[in-house]
Amino acid sequence: MALSCTLNRYLLLMAQEHLEFRLPEIKSLLSLFGGQFASSQETYGKSPFWILSIPSEDIARNLMKRTVCAKFHFYIRTLHIK
């Protein structure tokens, strides 16, 4: 039986500097802390708002401690209505 990994969604507010460095930095930090950058991640080029799926709050916090391209991260809570 395969284990399912729930990914939490986070809104990242990116700095409006170092635009070409954002994606490589986030990919590198995610891999450093045990996450993985998927091609389905919602990065909007020059937009300051990115939505990332990150496996845990710990990974999100560690990413924010090390990044120079992101200012804040916000957990996006979703409701599952049956």
Write up this protein:
- 26% of the residues lie in helices and 24% in strands.
- It is built from 2 helices and 3 strands.
- The radius of gyration is 13 Å and the shape is globular.
- With 82 residues, it is an alpha+beta fold.
- It has one domain: Alpha-Beta Plaits, CATH 3.30.70.
SSE map:
Blueprint: E1 8-14, H1 22-32, E2 49-54, H2 57-66, E3 70-76
Antiparallel strand pairs: 1-2, 1-3
Question: What's a concise summary of this model?
Answer:
The protein has 82 residues and is α+β, with helices and mostly antiparallel strands. The chain has helices at 22-32, 57-66; strands at 8-14, 49-54, 70-76.
By CATH reckoning, the class would read: Alpha Beta
**Terminal Cα span:** 25 Å
* Shape label: globular
Q: What is the total number of structural domains? A: 1
Radius of gyration: 13 Å
Strands in their spatial order, largest beta sheet: 2-1-3
Named CATH topology: Alpha-Beta Plaits
Helix content: 25-40%
Task: Quickly count the helices.
Answer: 2
N to C succession of SSEs: EHEHE
Percentage of residues in strands: 15-25%
- Unreliable residue stretches: none
